[in-house]
TrEMBL record:
A Pfam family recorded for this sequence: Polyketide_cyc2
Protein name per the record: SRPBCC family protein
Organism domain of life: Bacteria
Cited InterPro entries: Polyketide_cyclase/dehydratase (IPR019587), START-like_dom_sf (IPR023393)
SUPFAM superfamilies xref list: Bet v1-like (SSF55961)
Gene3D superfamilies: 3.30.530.20
Organism this protein belongs to: Kribbella deserti
Length: 152
């Protein structure tokens, strides 16, 4: 795979949010909060009590189509970074990754970067949806997250 192909398989968007990193991170690290800011209209609900605390954690999410996904946390730095690889229950993740990075600007504002990386996606059935997950879709999630975090 050339570096050009790889670039096409990574979508990213950033936004400054007028809220502290810890407050924003709570909205991301608590799966039950995620359907409230999902800009892909893909997440339906997640059971309460699954707050992510470490790499290796697994949380479940029900999609709008009724499918359940296990999300395997592969990167975690409290208040700063979280990433997971979704999979069907009991199966190996097919290779795509959702990442959130928070960079505090000051005590009350944070630059948040949301990335969808499907460079290692192996499931052909997911390729169309992966291609449709563009930076503007990620920006929608950031905008909805900002509205919640800023109390709008």
């Amino acid at each position: 795979m050339t570096s050009e192909d790889q670039e096409l398989r990574v979508a990213s968007a950033s936004r400054d949010i007028s809220a502290g990193a810890a407050q924003i991170f709570e909205l991301i690290a608590d799966p039950s909060q995620q359907p409230g800011w999902d800009g892909n209209a893909n997440l339906s609900e997640a059971p309460a009590g699954q707050r992510v605390r470490a790499t290796g954690d697994v949380f479940t999410m029900t999609l709008t189509g009724g499918q359940v996904r296990e999300n395997h946390v592969v990167e975690f730095d409290e208040g700063r970074r979280i990433a997971w690889r979704p999979s069907e229950p009991g199966k190996e993740p097919p290779g795509h990754l959702w990442r959130w990075e928070l960079d505090p600007i000051d005590a009350s504002s944070t630059r948040v970067t949301h990335t969808y990386d499907w460079t290692h996606l192996t499931d052909e059935n997911r390729m169309t949806r992966a291609r449709a997950t563009t930076a503007d879709k990620l920006q929608q999630s950031l905008d909805r997250l900002a509205a919640l975090a800023e109390g709008q």
